[in-house]
Design brief:
- Helices cover 50% and strands 6% of the residues.
- It is globular and about 75 Å long.
- By secondary structure, the chain is mostly helical.
- It is built from 18 helices and 6 strands.
- It folds into 2 domains: 48 residues, Rubrerythrin, domain 2 (Single Sheet); 351 residues, Citrate Synthase, domain 1.
- The strands form 2 sheets. A 3-stranded antiparallel β-sheet has the order 1-2-3.
- Bound molecules: carboxymethyl coenzyme *A.
- Carboxymethyl coenzyme *A binds next to loops.
């Protein structure tokens, strides 16, 4: 006996339409509205996509009610504790954990792409000294489409794979170049003896005399990269998919994702959180800012709090808070004033009825900036660090989408509220 198709009936205008229900591998059923307009002549209205699944995907699962996140079925806690960012990147892209040999080949392919073309390096001479790192990242990633365009056929699996490794290799070098543009220091070099995250720190700070990578810091960075590597159809990933669905150059699609990430409601929140801590300054001023966050006439929001999907503690935030303690202990800063302020703010918010009623908890961005700051990064670089980690998610989603033979261009409709038809009146008659 075959599996019975599940449907949901919708009554309208005295008629009835049966809509198929799709069954995910985990989670609630999904109403299939693919043919809804053709069947009924109606459209659905879901302006910020609160109720809409925009695609099928095999990569990442989030259960926001339970506070669960997994990559390819593996719980984020296990990956953050036991894995490495490169291994997780392999897992996201290939769908399975690698053997040691497979991981070595993967690492080599990423390493081989850790270089920048002359024209991209020269681009940095044109940026103002105070250019925001995210604007430099968007521009420099987009500029790679000027080099990698004519030879890329987005329908060819080999070309897509070549792009995947290029972008994974180049973004850390771009991040180091951006940091050195604002720090006025020279970029360090790749060191064979170091792992991926230690190499990133070496690229960032290796130009400083006598710099040596602290293993506690490189481990903390690796954990941050793992936790940020993917998060299903968030704003930036959806931007990559929407732009990419037109068949555009993948670097251009990637730049669209980075642009979306920059906003303070998304990845830009990590910079905004530290700005907020600096503004709050001391524990005795917390209640004033909590009241501001609750005041509907005040645009202030508690940055690093709340999430569209998580209505429970963001599992990434819990991990990052613990990592924060480890890094600050290593620096001998167990009484770090910013961490103390953050912990006090979290404690007060979690016991406030406004935050309880709306299920508002710390998200991935609440504690990460404190770690980045401890590692020596200026706050304007924090969202670049998010992008550096998320690039594997974006590239994997782009590859998954482009490999789908049924791919159609993304094209939402609208609820039109403008004027009805009216006739043009010549200029001298108005
Ligand atoms: N401070 C105060 N009130 C909040 C906050 C907050 N941070 N977040 C949500 N609310 C309130 C909101 O005003 C609304 O209240 P009411 O029901 O009375 O109108 C209720 O909670 C539901 O919020 P929402 O606006 O419907 O939530 P959303 O799903 O549209 O927005 C969010 C999600 C993350 C944009 C929002 O929570 C927010 O602005 N948070 C601060 C920015 C932030 O930390 N962003 C990082 C998100 S996680 C990482 C990432 O995506 O990159």
């Amino acid at each position: 006996m075959g599996k019975e198709n599940k449907t949901i009936g919708l009554l309208y205008n005295g008629g009835r339409v049966d809509l198929d229900l799709k069954e995910p591998s985990v989670g609630p059923d999904v109403v299939d509205l693919k043919n809804f307009s053709a069947q009924t002549g109606l459209y659905t209205f879901d302006p910020s996509y609160s109720s809409t699944a925009s695609c099928e995907s095999y990569i990442t699962y989030v259960d926001g009610t339970a506070g669960v996140l997994s990559y390819r079925g593996y719980p984020i806690e296990q990956l953050a504790q036991e894995s490495t960012y490169l291994e997780v990147s392999y897992l996201l892209y290939h769908g399975e954990l690698p053997t040691r040999d497979q991981l070595d080949v993967f690492r080599l392919k990423v390493k081989q792409n850790m270089l920048l073309e002359e024209s991209v390096i020269k681009l940095f001479d044109t940026f103002p000294e105070n250019a925001h790192p995210m604007s430099m990242l968007i521009t420099s990633v987009a500029s790679l489409s000027s080099i990698y365009h004519h030879d890329i056929n987005v329908r060819e699996p080999e070309d897509r794979e070549a792009f995947f490794f290029q972008v994974l290799g180049k973004v850390p070098i771009l991040a180091a170049t951006i940091l050195n543009h604002i720090n006025k220091k020279t970029v360090g070099s790749y060191d064979e003896k170091l792992n991926y995250s230690a190499n990133i720190l070496n690229l960032f700070f290796g130009g400083i005399p006598n710099f040596e990578v602290n293993p506690v810091f490189s481990k903390a960075l690796d954990v941050l990269l793992i936790l940020h590597a993917d998060h299903e159809q968030n704003c930036s990933t959806s931007s990559v998919r929407l732009a990419g669905s037109s068949g555009t150059n993948p670097y251009a699609a990637m730049a669209a994702g980075i642009a979306a990430l920059w906003g303070p409601l998304h990845g830009g929140a990590n910079e905004a959180v530290v700005r907020m801590f600096n503004e709050i300054k001391s524990k005795d001023r917390i209640s004033h800012f909590i009241e501001k966050a609750k005041d509907k006439n005040d645009p202030f929001r508690l940055m690093g709090f709340g999430h569209r999907v998580y209505k429970n503690y963001d599992p990434r935030a819990a991990f990052i808070r613990a990592t924060c303690h480890e890094v600050l202990d290593e620096l001998g800063q167990d009484n770090n004033p910013m961490l103390e302020l953050a912990l006090a703010l979290e404690e007060i918010a979690l016991h406030d009825q406004y935050f309880i009623d709306r299920n508002l908890y710390p998200n991935v961005d609440f504690y990460s900036g404190i770690i980045y700051q401890a590692l020596g990064l200026p706050k304007e670089m924090f969202t670049v660090m998010f992008a550096l980690a998320r690039v594997v998610g974006w590239a994997t989603h782009w590859c998954e989408m482009m490999a789908n033979p049924g791919l159609r261009i993304g094209r939402p409709r609208q609820l039109y509220l403008g004027p009805k038809k009216r006739n043009y009146i010549p200029l001298d008659q108005r």
